[in-house]
TrEMBL record:
Nuclease is among the record's keywords: no
Domain Carboxymuconolactone decarboxylase-like, residue spans: 40-120
Keywords from the UniProt entry: Oxidoreductase, Peroxidase
Record flagged with keyword Oxidoreductase: yes
A GO MF term: peroxiredoxin activity
Record's protein name: Uncharacterized peroxidase-related enzyme
Length: 214
């Protein structure tokens, strides 16, 4: 059962307005944000940071950012964020072969060397202790400029926060995220884990989808 109960999407008007962002990225407002509303300053700051980090500034595409998020979440073991990241990658136009073979990004031909450098950076930066070294740096600078590296680390750091938030909370996972997790990650053993849905959580999600689609 979740550590803290998500609040109604109507709990805080400012959060509700900002959370329309997630209609595009996920198709629903995540339960993690509904829980953050217990302190609205946190939910609002988080959404604004999310929007800034995920803004498409150029070559680090929206799809690649979500794949970076998946690698980071996979490294830390957060099944909630794994499903969210792969769902958002799909919604932002990641190639089907990449979605189907994200686990094999280091060797699969669907991924470029530049993408592999970015995803290896995510893996190294998400480990404890941190594994970013000179070899990672050299590969990054071969393909990406400093602004783009800042964008990537912004994604990795954002999901470091989310991984800890959702795994500690045991945030109940939404049905749409479950579908994406099972479709793309299930063959490698992905399941809901501690993020299993409870009936009262599903009521919140359904109300949330209805409110944000109106």
């Amino acid at each position: 059962m979740p550590l803290v109960t998500p609040l109604s999407p109507n709990h805080d008007a400012d959060t509700k307005q900002l959370a329309e962002f997630f209609n595009e990225t996920l198709g629903f407002c995540p339960n993690s944000v509904l829980t953050m509303q217990h302190r609205p300053a946190i939910s609002k700051a988080f959404i604004n940071l999310n929007k800034a980090v995920m803004a498409n500034e150029g070559r680090v595409t929206s799809a690649l950012k979500r794949m970076i998020a998946w690698v980071s979440s996979n490294a830390t073991g957060c099944r909630y964020c794994q499903a969210h990241a792969i769902r958002a990658a799909e919604r932002y136009g990641a190639e089907q072969e990449q979605l189907d073979n994200i686990w094999e990004y280091r060797t699969h031909p669907a991924f470029s060397d530049a993408e592999r450098a970015a995803l290896d950076f995510s893996l190294a930066a998400s480990q404890v202790p941190n594994a970013v070294d000179d070899e990672i740096k050299q590969r990054l600078y071969k393909y990406w400029n400093e602004g783009e590296i800042v964008e990537m680390l912004g994604v990795i750091s954002l999901f470091g926060y989310l991984n800890r938030w959702n795994d500690s909370m045991g945030t109940s996972i939404e049905e749409g995220a479950v579908e994406s997790g099972e479709q793309y990650l299930g063959k490698h053993g992905w399941n809901k884990g501690k993020h299993i849905q409870f009936p009262w959580i599903m009521v919140v999600v359904l109300k949330n989808q209805e409110i944000f689609s109106s």
